[in-house]
Amino acid sequence: MRVATSRRGSSTAPTRQRVAVVIPAKDESRRIAATVRAARAIPHVDLVLVVDDGSEDATQHVARDAGAVVVRHSHNRGKASAMETGAAVVAMRDVDGRPPRMLLFLDGDLGESAVNAAPLVQPVLEGAADLSIALLPPQPGAGGRGIVVGLARRSIQSMTGWTPTQPLSGMRCLTREAFEAATPLAHGWGVETGMTIDLLSKGFVAVEVPCDLRHRASGTDLRGQMHRAAQYRDVLLAVNARKMAGVARGVGRAFRLRRRGG
Ligand SMILES: O=c1ccn([C@@H]2O[C@H](COP(=O)(O)OP(=O)(O)O[C@H]3O[C@H](CO)[C@@H](O)[C@H](O)[C@H]3O)[C@@H](O)[C@H]2O)c(=O)[nH]1
Ligand SMILES: O=C(O)[C@H](O)COP(=O)(O)O
After folding, report:
1. Cα(186)–Cα(255) distance, rounded to whole angstroms?
2. Ligand 2 centre and the CA of 156: distance in Å?
3. How much distance in Å is there from the Cα of 260 to the middle of ligand 2?
């Protein structure tokens, strides 16, 4: 388990704590049933919510038949938006007098391997971390050259001091407090990078946890390269927005100090 060098670990009571799995899904009808069934088998999970992000296939029906609660965007809005919708729906289904459910975000294409995300729950449940991020084994057919991953890793490193191994990994478990501190989420594929920067900057603790997960990796074909270009764009936008916000905060602080001094 790799631990970020940041402070703070929230003290989530281990008893009665429940976990909601949130699965953003766009055109995942081939794998979503196996993913949902496997997610339901993860200890502490009592709700599996699929957010169908404007799919053109039967994702919503297949997911419902497999036992998920399903909500749907009528138009595609991107992964980050699906995550926000999912968290809002979980909040509506939380019960008064019980702690809010922890959130476990899983991709829709994990299939049966989704059950192997279970080790993400424990560090957050025990309060050792606020955010746990899955470290995946090498994926068959993956065609990445590390360009997007490198951009995200270097950006997180320079802005927080922590060097994640897999900065784009979207399989992550976090407390509701941490999720709320990370909103509004960065758009689209920038969501993981933005979330990690925001949470570590605010003193939350992140860990990376090895999980034996398999997903549909992007290849080297045109589709794969187009996908990476979109990822690069979104990660860059997320990082630049946070850098600008940092500059604005610095200017504001200097201005206030000057006024106080004068
Ligand atoms: O508009 C979209 C596109 C995708 N998805 C879902 O988002 C998840 C991840 O998408 P995927 O196509 O599998 O992307 P990958 O490139 O394989 O994703 C890697 O990189 C992303 C960041 O760029 C992370 O979000 C992922 O967790 C990580 O597996 C899947 O469940 C998709 O169905 C949406 O909800 N809306
Ligand atoms: O295939 C991948 O690992 C992601 O799409 C990121 O691509 P990258 O190789 O440019 O980092």
Report:
1. 28
2. 16
3. 48
